[in-house]
Each structure stands twice: as structure tokens, then as C-alpha cells.
Amino acid sequence: MNFSLGRRILLTLAAPVVALVFSVAMSSIVLLISGSNPVAAFGDMMSHASRLETMVDILNRATPLYIAGVAVAIGFRMNLFNIGVDGQYLLAALVAAHLGAMVNLPGVLRIVWILVVAMAVGAAYSGFAGVLKVTRGINEVISTIMLNAIAISGIVAYLVREWQAGGEILSGSASRVGTTPIPESGLIPDLNSVLEFFTREVGQGKELTGMLVIAILVGLGYHILVNRTRFGFDLRASGINPFAAQVGGVPAKRMVVSAMVLSGAVAGLVGMAEINQVGFFPANPIRGLGFTGIAVALLGRNHPAGIILAALIFAFLDISSGVLQFTGAASREIVVIMQGVIILAAVVAYEVARRARERQEARSAAEALGDIKPLEAA
Amino acid sequence: MAQAIELIGITKRFPGVVANDSVNLSVEEGEIHAICGENGAGKSTLMKILYGMQQPDAGTMKVDGREVRFTSPSQAIDAGIGMVHQHFMLADQLTVLENVILGAEPTKAFGRIDFEEARSHLKQVGEAYGLTIDPDDLVEELEVGERQRVEIIKVLYRGAKILILDEPTAVLVPQEVEELFRNMRGLKNDGATLLFIDHKLDEVLAIADTITVLRDGKTVATVKPDEVTAHDLAELMVGSELPTPETTESTVTDVVALEVDSLLVVDLEDRVLVDDVSFRIRRGEVVGIAGVEGNGQAELVDAVLGTRPVKSGKISLMGEEITLIPVRERREKGIGYIPQDRHREGLLLPAPLWENAALGHQTQEPFTSGPFIDRDGAKSRTEHIRQEFDVRTPNVEVAAHALSGGNQQKLIVGREMTAGPVVLLAAHPTRGIDVGAQAEVWDDIKAARALGMATLLISADLDELIGLSDTIVVMLRGKLVATVDPATVSPRDLGAYMTGAKQESA
Amino acid sequence: MAKIPAWLRWSLYAAVGVLVLTTVQGFDDTDSLTAAGSSQSMLRWAVPILLAGLGGLFAERAGVVNIGLEGMMILGTWFGAWGAVVYGPWWGIVLAVLAGGMGGLLHAIATVTFGVDHIISGVAINILAPGITRFLSSEILTTLEGGSITQSPRVPGVGTFTVPIFGGGNIGTWQSPDFFGWIAAREWFLVSDIASLAKGLMTRISWVSLIALLLVPFVAWLLWRTRFGLRLRICGERPQAGEAQGINVYRYKYIGVVISGALSGLAGAFIVSPELSGIYLEGQTTGRGFIGLAALIFGNWRPLGVLGGALLFGYPFGIGLRDLDGSASHSLILVNAIGLGAVAIWAATRRKRGDAALALALGLVAAGWYLLSDTLPDVWINILPFVIVLIVLIFFAQRLRMPAADGLRYRRGEH
Fold this sequence. Notes:
Chain A has a single domain (37-330), classed as ABC transporter involved in vitamin B12 uptake, BtuC, CATH 1.10.3470. Helix content of chain A is 73%, strand content 0%.
């Protein structure tokens, strides 16, 4: 409706903007208290981020964050909290990297094989939490937290040693330990040639990850699945009102398991960015992408495009703050606070906006009818 | 006589509605004062304002002649006002004693609750008013009537002199209503002032000393019961006669649409909820189930719909067994459902109307094409429902929560009816909606019945049950205990069957 | 059947537990399962879990789910360490409690005032808290002698005491007899084992541990015997009923959640104290806030149950810490197998055939593993508590009863 559409969009955008401004303000205050100049610090970060090489880094970081965000969002859409993305992606990446190196397949097939294994492992591990929920009534928040710990400090920690390929000289000059390297032909090629077609040559040996393409496909698939299909309708209905959905013929238990399986399958892809970059599963992989993924999904309101923005914001903060180490304008750790504040401020702002929107809708529905009827406030 | 309560020009607005529009009310000390009005007239809001749960936007309140301004119920309680809520304000997991003393706990040093003192005070109050209850029972173990007694004791425990009772008869059978009225008269004789909300006119005329009628948020009249008839009251409440749900002629055919055979339903702890129930509904027939809430009716409906597993027995739809198939298939085969709680089971409140219209039928034309949702088809069907069932909404994109209760209900009824169900399960289909919407829902059910729909009707409104049903069966503790003819049975007799006071002489 | 009082029931469980441990270590020719050191170390590991669990109890009894316990605990570790290093051990505890309480306050503002989903707010706090401590470390710890961005200098402790007579502690300067130590040395079957474990619980106990243990009966009294407790609990069961009686539900929810954070903060202070680490290390809480939550669920939202859960989950950690050759962890597998066997019998008597079969199968796997191996990979002990939590939940989740309005959004005036 025209009369409310404008306000609706305004309300939708206002909340994250307010959250961002609030977190910049808060961290500026913190910086001032600690004796740094916030203007200089943010200025340094901005100018650093405007370099092509930094942008490549930001995109490389945003890619797994986006995938993690989508994985979490799939659960959120039906009110399931998949806190276990961390465990799922690390386990998936480890198994996929190992099996990818062990099974001998020609080029593209190997790429597909690795991706399929990763998705299958993630799906199975996450699906287990779903099964526990529907058969045993265990809240998925608790079970995924426990499964996280079991996967990360148990299974992964054990297997990475079992499958360790010895301290070979890997990935350029640095000597890094991990699983057996996957042949170059089994890795998704970087996108530098595409990027350079539009810009200039990328320096410092930076490579734009090919997983970016997969991430975009994941986002598209997520959008179509959730917003256009019957399955997505069932998923959203269960999220909004599980009782009404069940009465409406949605098989509640199957939906829970399906959603967890799908979420886990996407989560399985999170670690692929790193695998494709270094060519094996490193003994000390990037952790915590799942938790950040929760933040990204929340900030992006579970919306396929919103999550893109959120992932870019978080990646920007992560990467561009690196420059602070060199300029000395502030401690780079300030961005960790910023991320925390953004997310807390955003969830509060969304809640306030949601309530404002509901009031607005009730009012405009009544006005449109020209029929101000009293209502029993039940 | 002195005025116990005086409200002058009370106004309360909510987004999009004016719930109370400069309402005046004057209640004399020691009387039973009824507030009448149909659903949505603003009665509950007014009482919540008086009890301090909501603050008015304008107007003044006087209690015992002194002007007051309540920002919390505790101030109302201090002023001697107590409220018995329609939806009981009790915690199931706490004991009766804990529930009663809550907010008025007698304490010893260090904030320790003096349970001895509490117990003896509770006993004293119970004896004084002839209301007995075991203080150590968990509330979850109590029946509806007992819970209401706890609510009343709770109010008396605080020494309230002015009692507000919000639709206290809604959940009671006629016999329990009589007992409630006896208690109310007893309280009045002890000097209490009672303010009670009701929309059943015969009840109001039977008990009230004074009646104030609210309509569209305004006071339209204050009358004495001996000056008016039920007809006059209805005229005041809705501007016309109250609609009655009477059906004219039988449309019952010989074709059995729904057959339930020896159905047994148990809960997780193996307690029997539905006990060996058998019945059939033929096309064009309405079978009403009478019963005090919590006697297995809801579970019976769940079992037929498929949301609750059955332990044994058989359910057949048009001769085909459906006992074990999932809800979705049952709905595709033609089971329609109007849930008793539209917010809990009927709607996706934050979702647009067209998605709500698709709910339950999302696998069927015109809501779907292949694995995808057909948005255009869904929207045009919703538009059709909106016109056909008079759902008042600016368009089909608004969220369901923006609609009034009556319009939400019409949307649900329209959604189920347009799908052309073979069997309709209707649980309290007109609960909490205004009389206009109520009459429309009745007409819709009657029209579909004439076209051959079989209906299983559950209602706490005995007039509705008697008026719409071709046959009434009575359910008590999970069993069907009686079958009665609605043409001959009175609400009072029905009530006797429902409480087990009367058994079928067969 | 007459109802056995809770304390007696739990004591009975404990005695049976010790019996199993004694029997098992008989097979494995070790005494580490019932050594005084084991119970001592179990207690040390249990205390943070217990405190976090009691914290969760306050929040959830008031109707607010608090998975931000972990984050609040992290705040507690940092402020506890910093306060202790700079101002002295007791100040560290005060600051940790305050910092945790601030985390709780944040959670209360988000969930109670703004109506944000409890899990979402908790996750946000778990993201924010390590950010804050990391920043503070970079600004402050790096300036301290022996500190760096990920760790603090040595953290001083508040001291310990040993119970006289029973544990051989001093009264004044007089060294009292060591009653339990004496029995333990007699090597009487079971009796000596119980005495040995009891001695461990009475020897060199941190004052904070003592506070934590005393909190259990205190909390039970506070929540079930006082006006404050009744009013707090109504907020978790049916806040509307409280509101209708003029109780300020928001205030009680705030109090519950702030206490929740404060107790988590105290747990953090304990983690950095010499009892456990003696140092602040980034990431050292390793999910203990979450285990506290699991102890709360295991304990069916009751203080004594939380204690039971904390000891149960703390035990394998405590064993693992002292278990250099992996033999004690190995014995624990057999204990697990026996436990699963008991569950199978329990389920069978209740005619839950599926559960019984599942428990039996898992028990046989554990027993087989025990028989076919000599030691266990060291990672096993790290995840054992989590595995136990999962298995406990698998069999008992449906018997648990959380407060009826726990986790639900409450707005004043909405029903």
C-alpha cells in the first residue's frame, strides 16, 4: 500500500543505520577514553579499504561469512537456532579436504566431489541435532552447543592429527601443517582474471576466491527456496506459528529435520573458502565463522540481500582494521567491540521498529476502512 | 446510597481504535452491577482501566468518592478493588496457597513467608464465604470451576470490597453459574460491591441490580432489570435483536461422511483423554459435542484432524480409513478446520492475508503451481474470500494482526469454506467476535450444511450448540455419555449431562 | 510410595556413584577415580559450572533464558584477573561480580525492556563480551608486567582452608586430627573410598568454593521460602498473574538476570584464580557457561539438581586434569557403560523399550571400547562432559519441566 510502503521501507532501513551509527558513536567514545583519535582511526580504515587489494581481502572474508549467515538464516526462518555452524563447517571442511585429496578424480569432478562431501557432512551433523529435537525433545540451542564442542575439541582435534600430512612446505613460503594437499586442478580457480578485466592488475599475490560464485548461488537458491516455493512457505509458516502450521498440514517434525539438514549443508560450505585458498585443511583453521554468521544473519534480517550487506560490513571491519597496527591510530581490537555493539544495537532497533510497524499497520488498516471500530483488547 | 465507583469521561485509544469513548459509569455501594455489551464494545478495557492494568487517555475515576489515578493494580488493590479475570491469572505449577498469597504474602523476618499465617488466613476466608479448596493442590490439577473459586478467594484474601468479575460465566455450565450467582449474592449480603461483565442477557437480568450497556465504546444506557426485557437489552447492545443460530429444516442425508469407531487417545503419561468414542456424521448433518472444557473434546478434534496420535480405533472419511495418514493428506481429502484459538492455531499474524488464506491449502489449487507458490492465484483467491465473506480489510497484503477479531475469524471461515470441505471441524467458531460477524459465521455454516457438508461442532455457548446441531452428544471425562435431541433439550438439562449430574436413561 | 527428601535422594545417588567408581577402579588397578585429589579437582572444576548454573537458575526462574552466561563469565575472568592483579584478590572478585552483573543488565535491557528474543540477545552478548575483553587486554594487560594481549600476569588467590578434625585442618596453630584421611588410609572397601573423596572436598578449599557451595541451600531457601522468591518465580511461571497482583514483573526479571550475570562473573573470577588457572588466558572459559546451562537443565531448574549436574560434569574434567597416562579416562568409559546399563534397566522397568534398547546399545559400545583399548585419545576427556550432557538429555529431556513462561516474551498489559 502506498500510504505505508514508504514508511515501511524507512522503518526497515532506519533500524540497521541507527545501529551502525550507534556503534560508531560508542566505539568513538571508547577510543577517546583510551586516548586515541577516532577520526584518524576510522579515516585510516576507510582509506585502507579503498585499495583494490584490501577490497579483495574483504570479499574473501565476506564470502564465508555470507555463507555462514545464510546457513544460520535458514534455521532462523523457522525459529530454529543453529548455533552449531562452527562445528559443522570445521568438521565438513576437514573431511572434505581429506577425502578430496585421497580420492583421485579429474579436475572439475574433484571440485564437485569436495563440495558434495562438505555439504553432506555438514548436513548430517546438523541433521543429528534436528533428529534429537524431534525424537527426544532436546532444544537445538543446547544440542548444537554440545555438538560444537564435541566436533571442535574432539573429532576435529583428533582427526586433524590422524590425517596430518607432516610439516611439508606448503602454500608458498610459510611452512604450514595440515591434511594432504589437494591437487591444484581440484581447487576452484580464483576470479582474478574476471576482476582484472574490470579494474587493474591485483598486486601482492592476492587472489579473489572462486567461492564467491558459490556464495552468490547459495544466496539465490536461498531466496527462491524460502520465498517462492511451497517448502519455503511451510518453513516460514512453521517459524511464525508452529501450531498453525501443523494444523495447516505442515509436517512439523520433518520440517525441523529438513531445515537443520539444509542449514548444515550450507554450513558445510563455509570452510571451503579456506580450503580452496590454502589447498588443504590447516591444523589451525579459521574458527568462529559460525558465531559471526549468527551476527551477520541477525544484522541482515535473514534477508538474502541484507545478509550480503551485513557480511560486507563485518568483513570490512575485520580486514580494514589491520591497518591500525601500522598507523598506530588506535588499537585494532576496537572493531571487535564495534561488531558486538552493532549486533546488540541492531536486534534492539529491529524489535523497536517491528513494534512501530505493527502499530502503523493496525492504524492504517482501520483508517483505510474509514471504520474506527472499538476493539476489545483481549 | 454512596457511590462505590464513579467513572467520568473515560477514554482509551489503541492504534486504529477507540476502545472507550468518554464512558461514564456509576456503581452504588453494595450492589451487583452488570456491564453488558457485545464482543468489542470495550467492556474488558474499561475494567482493566478500573483495575489499574491500563491507564486511560482521558477522564476521571472516583472510588468511594475520592478521586484516584491507578498506574498499577497494586494501587487498585490498596483501594479495595479486586478482579477475577476471564482468563484465570493462575500459575499451574504453583500451589493454590502460593497463588492466593502472591502479592499479599504475610512475612516474618528476612522476607520469609509466614506460611502458617497464610494458611490460617486462607482457611478463615474460605469458611467465611463458604468457598473451600485444598491449599496444597497444584493449580494444574484443578477443574475449571475450582480455578474460578481460587480466583475469587484470591480477591477476598486481600480484603477487597469491590469485586470485578470479567465474564465469569463464560466457562461454566448452567448449574455452576447458579452456584456462582449464589456466591455473588452472599458476597453482596456481606457488604461487597460487585461489578460483572456478561453478554448473556438472561443471566444479567437474573442477578444484576443495575445494568449498564456499552456499545462501540460508549455508554448507551443504565437501566434496572425490572424495567427492561431481554429484547430491550439486545436492542441497546447491538441496535437490533440479537441473532439466534436456529436452523430451519433438516438437510441430513444417508451418506456417512465421517465415522469414528472406538477411538482411544492417551497422553504421554498414558492417561486416557478420549475413551472409546464412536460416532458418525452424515453429509448435511451437524453433530454438536457438549462438554465442560477439558473433557476430551479438543483432543478428539485433534485426533480427527491428525495432529494427535491415536492409540487405537479407526477414523474414516467417506468410507476411506484415514486413521494413520498425516494432516496434510487429510486436509487434501477434504477436512476443514476452524480452530478454537484463532491466534494460536488459525493464523500467521505477521504474514499478509493472502499467505494466511493459503495456510492449510498450500498444496492445492489455486495456491500452488508445481513446487512453487502461485502468488497471483493465492492473491486472487484471497480477494474472492474477502468479498464473499465480507472480510473488512483495505487489501490482501496487510498483515493478519492488523484486522479485528471478527474479520480474522471471517477470513478463517472463508478460507475453510471456499475449499469446499467434506467434513468441517468447528471448535468454538464464534468465540470472542461481535454479533454481526457471529451471525455471518452461522449463516456460512448453515449454507455449507445445506450443500452437504458434514460438521463436527464444539462450543461452550450452549445456545449456539443447540441452535446449529442436528444431534448433540455429551462428552464427560473422555467418554460420550449421552446423545440428546437439540429440538427438545434445554441448556439446563444439557448442563446436567455435562457435569454428570444427570445420566442418560437408556 | 513415601517421598524421599531431595537431599537424602541425592546423597543416595552419590553413594551409589562412589560404589561404581570403587568397583571399576578395582578392575583397572588404579585408585585415581576415588583419590582425594580427584574429588578436590572435581570440586574445582564444578564450582564455575555450579555458579553459572545457579546464575542460569535465577534468570530462568524469572522467565529469561540466558545463554549469555558464557559471555558474562568471560567478563568475569578478565575483570577478576585484572582486579586481583592490580588491587588484590578480593577486589578481583568484587570487580568480576560487577562486570558479570553489567553483562546481565545488558541482557535484561535487551530482553525485558526491548523485548528482544532471549537467545538472540544472549548470542549478541557472547559476541560482544570477548570483544570487550580483547580490547581491554590490548589497552591494559599489555601495559602490565608479564601481561600480553592474550594473557594476564599471575593472578593471586583469596586463599584456602582445610576443615579441621574431618580434613585435618588447623585450629589456631593446633593441627587437628585428620579423620577422613585416617579412614581413607585403612583401605576398607567403599568406606575408605567415600572418606577419601570426602577428604578431598574438605582439604584446601577456596573460600570462593565455600561460598558457591553455601549458595546452594541459600538459593533454595531464597526462591522457595521467601516473598522475593515467590515473586521471582511467578515471573517465570505466569508473569501476567504477578502483574495482576500489582507485582512489578519487569523489576523482578531485571533482578533475576542481573544476579545471573553476577554469579557468572563470580564463576569467571574463580576460573582465573590459582585454584584453577592462576592466570587470565583468552578463550579459557571453553564453554563452561554453556555447561552451566546444561547443569541447570539436568538439575530440572532446581538448586540441588544444579549442584548434582555441576559435580557430574566437573568430575571427568577433574579426572582428566590429573590423568597423564589416560588410564583414569579409560576407566571412566566403563563407568559410563555401567551408567548406561542402569539407564537401560530404568527404562525397561518403565516399559520404554526403545529407550532401553538404545541405552543398552550405547552401553555395549562403551563396554566394547573399554575392553578393546588400553588408553584413550586425550581429546576424549575434553568432550566427555558434553557427551554426558547429550546422553543425559537424550534419555531424560522429556521428563524435565522448565518454568512455564521461560523464554517467552512478556509485555506489560499484553495477555
